């Protein structure tokens, strides 16, 4: 707990009303979370304006209101009004200070890139644990301490908002965590969620074609990723990705390059990994993780001893097999990621490659036809279905994807219901075939116009495989 005066120390702002010696017990931009002694940040968001909820926040006990506009509404005199230039920056600063700046007491590693963030963070976490460290991994698949998923009340976001992140980091300090590895999304970076986390190592993996629309174009997306360069003390860069190399051209901090390029600082041509981890892109993910440990001071020979024990996180090329049919569930939801997975499975498939996928609603529409084209290029059979349509018409999304097929094709089918699409793919698979279910990976829900509905690709695939086996046995008994 801090006095308002302590929270505002050295922060540029103007203050009016209320009592500055009031104790602050928390901060939030969600009026429903306000409790007695809280600061409410009335930020204008994409969906709603926090100014509309000021009265509600005060009724629930807010002692101060933070605004970034000069007007608003009549705010009662006993409440402190703090006017700042940027609400997101103040939220980051105040959340860190209220939590006691916990990031300063641990090694912080942040990973950004269009694809691979989850895998790299988990790889780094697994390697660090092999050296006896207590490690937290924070990202798309949840929050893990020493490999065990923990319950923590927060929104399901790749990069947590500052008001949730810093209390979590404080919890990590209390539990003896020495290293935190987190995913830094473009949205998280552009909204300043990590601005008051002291990042020891930043990792730039790749730049692909996703989230352009959300940021207002490719350049804005790349600039959002570049923010990590200003936050980190050292940057690890994918030498094989031209966008990443260009991003760090003017950087003044230490740079470490990894990749297959002969000029890369970290190259391991004979890298031995778990044989279940397929694909060149996963070798690159491993190289990124190895680079992070090298920067932390570990020796390459010691690191390589543990690489064969690396395991992919949930929903990343997650395999189940029965009666000669292999099914892979993967999170690939961008053209680059889908192509990487399709290439990998195509090269290891002795039979047919059957692909089930869709595209998310209210997201980058430009990628839909491209992903459709990629799916038909590598697959023997493609079943296009719903992903997370949100409030967009699922039929319209499927129609956009089908444009990439370039005309009628008997090997392509549209099935609106994702469960039925998975069942069809698995029921038609024969021994030696591979079924890829792409797009949702670890997710346990499907986001539709009716809200979040329970749904797991893995569970549906396991159920379909069991039913398929039962039907096959029944047919044999009849014969």
CATH C-level category of the largest domain: Alpha Beta
Strand count, sense and barrel status of the largest sheet are:
8 strands, mixed
> What is the CATH third-level topology name of the largest domain?
UDP-N-acetylmuramoyl-L-alanine:D-glutamate ligase
Give the strand order, joined by hyphens, for the main sheet.
11-10-9-12-8-13-14-15
**What is the helix tally?**
16
Mean pLDDT value: 93
In CATH terms, the superfamily of the largest domain is: Mur-like, catalytic domain
- Give the distance, in angstroms, between the N- and C-terminal Cα atoms: 75 Å
Number of separate domains: 3
In the predicted model, the low-confidence regions spanning at least 5 consecutive residues are none
Rounded radius of gyration (Å): 24 Å
- The helicity comes to 25-40%
**What fraction of the residues are assigned to beta strands by DSSP?**
15-25%
CATH architecture of the largest domain: 3-Layer(aba) Sandwich
**How many strand units?**
23
> Judging from the principal axes of the Cα atoms, what is the shape?
globular
Structural class: alpha/beta
Write structural notes for this entry.
- By secondary structure, the protein is α/β, with parallel strands linked by helices.
- It has three domains: 2-98, MurE/MurF, N-terminal domain (Udp-n-acetylmuramoylalanyl-d-glutamate--2,6- Diaminopimelate Ligase, Chain: A, domain 1); 102-309, 3-Layer(aba) Sandwich (UDP-N-acetylmuramoyl-L-alanine:D-glutamate ligase), CATH 3.40.1190; 318-474, Alpha-Beta Complex (Protein-Tyrosine Phosphatase, Chain A), CATH 3.90.190.20.
- Helix content is 35%, strand content 20%.
- It has 16 helices and 23 strands.
- It has helices spanning 4-8, 54-59, 87-98, 117-130, 162-174, 186-190, 212-215, 218-231, 242-247, 280-295, 300-304, 335-348, 368-378, 394-402, 418-427, 457-478, and strands spanning 2-3, 14-16, 23-24, 26-28, 38-41, 64-67, 80-83, 107-112, 135-139, 142-145, 148-149, 179-183, 199-204, 232-238, 255-258, 318-322, 325-330, 353-357, 381-384, 412-414, 434-438, 445-448, 451-454.
- Strands 11-10-9-12-8-13-14-15 form an eight-stranded mixed beta sheet. Strands 16-17-21-18-19-20 form a six-stranded mixed beta sheet, with helices on both faces. The chain has a five-stranded mixed beta sheet with strand order 2-7-6-5-4.
- The longest helix has 22 residues, at 457-478.
- The protein starts with a strand and ends with a helix.
